[in-house]
Design goal:
- The chain is α/β, with parallel strands linked by helices.
- Helix content is about 30%, strand content about 25%.
- The chain contains 10 helices and 15 strands.
- The chain is globular and about 55 Å long.
- The two termini are about 15 Å apart.
């Protein structure tokens, strides 16, 4: 099969490598499309290795059709069925073997390209909101990087939970799009103090939940934005790993909860429960042609143009997901 490999200079090459065989409890998916994630950029640079036992190939999600069914598979899967899957790695390839517990059927209104935009971003957003923050109706949720794949998913999931999404982004175009997706307010963090704007919007109360992929450079404004007893959920560090100052004191005075979460390194059991819950609670909303939920796709690239796709993400101009097509669909 063709797959994207990282060469010695850190560049991406398409090479022919052996096709994986499905192991016990696994399905083999003939990949139609995958999607880029920030973790891919880090892994390419040697900063985010895959968990033990996972594929060294980049790619944390994929859509396609079932090509083979491994021994011990318990579900009523059918060869040729359209599916999407959460991966620990291996998505940038024409085939990937996946535990059946991490595989979901593609809702009928969605194309395989659209389905590739769902697993990592939507499961991450769902996990952050419901497994970690336990968001409640009418709570205000501050979402950083509101026009990203996770951000646009989180906006829609917050609305689905009858809570109130407020976002930050770095351009008027991104803010306008986030508001079209359902954000109650958008704040340009490059031009405004987002903590002041959050406090104005909430009439001084602050955000009940913060979804933060930035980290270090935002910590002080995050705490200023946080409501008493609020939950600050950290899931990335695009703004650095360090925080100088009275972080703990200010957090303590707010009785704030700092919750940290990653998805890739979680156990199969945890991921399987997340997929099961998401399949029951969210996927049915995608089944109708007038669904209130939709995956957001910024752009699509062919497998051969994978380096261009990465450059597009590194430029931080994308709104929604960047899709990588395998040419199998």
């Amino acid at each position: 099969m063709r797959a994207v490999c990282v060469n010695e200079s850190g560049k991406l090459d398409v090479k022919h490598i052996p096709r994986p065989e499905p192991k016990d409890g696994q399905l083999l998916i003939r990949v139609a499309a995958t999607a880029l994630n920030r973790a891919d950029l880090l892994q390419k640079r040697g900063l985010y290795p895959p968990p033990p036992g996972e594929s060294e190939i980049l790619g944390l999600e994929a859509s396609g059709v079932i090509a083979d069914i491994g021994p011990g598979v318990k579900g009523n899967w059918i060869l040729g069925s359209k599916v999407m899957a959460l991966l620990g790695g291996g998505g940038y390839a024409e085939y990937v073997a996946v535990p059946e517990k991490l595989v979901m059927s593609v809702p009928s209104p969605l194309t395989l390209n659209q389905a590739a935009a769902l697993p990592e971003a939507w499961l991450t957003a769902y996990q952050l909101l419901h497994f970690i923050a336990k968001v409640k109706p009418n709570e205000t949720v501050l979402i950083h990087a509101g026009a990203s794949g996770i951000g646009t998913a989180a906006i829609q999931l917050v609305r689905l939970s009858d809570a109130i999404p407020v976002v930050t982004a770095g351009s008027p175009e991104k803010l306008k799009f986030a508001e079209q997706m359902g954000a109650a307010a958008g704040i340009n963090y490059k031009e405004e103090d987002f903590s002041e704007k959050v406090l104005q919007f909430t009439e001084g109360k602050g955000a009940d939940v913060i979804l933060d992929c930035v980290g270090g450079s935002f910590w002080e404004k995050n705490i200023c934005s946080l409501a008493i007893d609020g939950r600050w959920v950290l899931y990335g560090m695009l703004g650095g790993k360090t925080a100088d100052g009275d972080l703990l004191g200010k957090l303590l005075r707010k009785r704030g909860n700092l919750l940290c979460s990653l998805l890739r390194s979680r156990s199969l059991q945890y991921k399987a429960e997340l997929v099961r819950s998401f399949t029951e609670q969210v996927l049915p909303h995608f089944q109708s042609t007038d669904s209130p939920l939709r995956p957001v796709i910024d752009s699509m690239f062919s497998l051969e143009d994978v380096e261009m796709a990465h450059e597009h993400m590194e430029a931080n101009k994308n709104i929604g997901k960047i899709i990588l097509k395998m040419g199998n669909s």
